[in-house]
Design a protein that fits this description.
Protein name: Sirohydrochlorin cobaltochelatase
Number of strands: 8
GO molecular function: metal ion binding; sirohydrochlorin cobaltochelatase activity
Strand content: 5-15%
CATH topology of the largest domain: Rossmann fold
Radius of gyration: 20 Å
EC number: 4.99.1.3
Structural class: alpha/beta
Enzyme class: lyase
Order of helices and strands: EHEHEHEHEHEHEHEHH
Pfam families: CbiX (PF01903)
Length: 331
């Protein structure tokens, strides 16, 4: 895997002087943010990869909560660099409350305050063939580090973050099914690190009873953090409780080259005008079973209290990784 030479944001090699009528593009990669410094470092590495892949554009990054720079800081930096059009891309896998609500609120608020700039908001990474190939590679890494076991004797446990948006949670089930059939596992299960059921510990208690020789626990996450470590801790506990079953821990996606390719594709989607999300099962637009009251809710940001407050390293203590997704409002 090739990494950028530094995790620190590179200075922008761009003149703020723009000729009349000239369009100068800037790319804003929007992260969730975490109290965990390792998670922030990994996201910054992603931003560094994008700068290397998109040298013709100014590229900035920012976080929705906890870490700095915050999203508004990144947008302001692009404005100061002289861009005339900003392409804002969610650095997130699925469209739950953060992508449907909080990030659009941040971007739209900036756009309203800067009517001289064109600001376009892209779609989430979603279920993407390149991300599925990256997922396959991470699972294969876990298999390669252990003794050979037939995949027909292996259960794949795909773990999602978990949100209060059933559409986003359902995407984890689709990812699991694609990997199950595409890689030829004997069975696949889905669990979540928080909010949605089943949690990983409950999912593993169920999975070990199905009789497979091996279980591979794969966090379908972009970056590390408290939640990923919690997933691995649950896997270790299940392995200790059930020595008759081999339980492997697959790496999360991180900065696999195909992940970088997928983010670059989302930038290209904006330029091609292909930014629409799948809204057929969006609880803010349709009366989804159990969430009928969410239709038409007003869009508002919900992260003011933790925006830019810093990581654990800033405060010298261990905090929590925001394991929930507010998802109160309509995109």
């Amino acid at each position: 895997m090739t990494h950028a030479p530094t995790d620190e944001p590179a200075p922008l090699a761009i003149s703020p002087v723009v000729a009349p009528g000239e369009e100068r593009l800037g790319v804003m990669i929007c992260g969730h943010g975490s109290r965990d410094e390792a998670a922030v470092t990994e996201f910054n590495r992603l931003a560094a990869h994008l700068r290397a892949r998109l040298p013709e554009h100014a590229v900035e990054s920012g976080f929705l909560e906890f870490a700095r720079p915050i999203i508004r800081d990144g947008l302001d930096a692009l404005k100061a660099a002289g861009v005339t059009r900003i392409l804002a891309v969610p650095g997130m896998l699925f469209a739950a409350g953060h992508v449907k609500n909080d990030l659009p609120w941040e971007v739209n608020s900036f756009a309203a305050a800067n009517p001289d700039l064109t600001v376009d908001f892209g779609r989430e990474l979603g279920i993407d063939p390149k991300l599925l190939k990256a997922a396959r590679a991470r699972i294969e890494e876990a298999e390669a580090a252990a003794a050979a076991v037939d995949r027909a004797d292996t259960l794949l446990m795909v773990v999602g973050r978990g949100t209060n948006d059933p559409d986003a949670n359902g995407n984890i089930s689709k990812v699991a099914r694609m990997l199950w059939e595409g890689m030829g596992f004997g069975w696949a299960e889905v669990s979540f690190s928080g909010v949605a059921a089943p949690l990983v510990d409950a999912g593993l208690r169920h999975a070990v009873r199905l009789g497979y020789r091996r279980i591979i626990v794969f966090p379908y996450f972009l970056f590390t953090g408290v939640l990923v470590r919690r997933i691995y801790d649950w896997a270790d506990a299940a392995a200790a409780a059930h020595p008759e079953v081999e339980i492997l821990k697959a790496p999360y996606l991180n900065d696999h080259p195909l992940v970088i390719d997928s983010v670059v594709d989302r930038v290209a989607d904006i330029l091609a005008g292909e930014t629409a999300m799948n809204c057929q099962l969006c609880k803010y637009r349709e009366q989804v079973i159990g969430f009928e009251g969410a239709v038409g809710a007003a869009q508002a940001g919900h992260h003011h209290h933790v925006r830019g407050v810093g990581t654990d390293g800033d405060h010298g203590h261990h905090g929590h990784d925001h394991g929930h997704d507010h998802g109160h409002s309509r995109p």
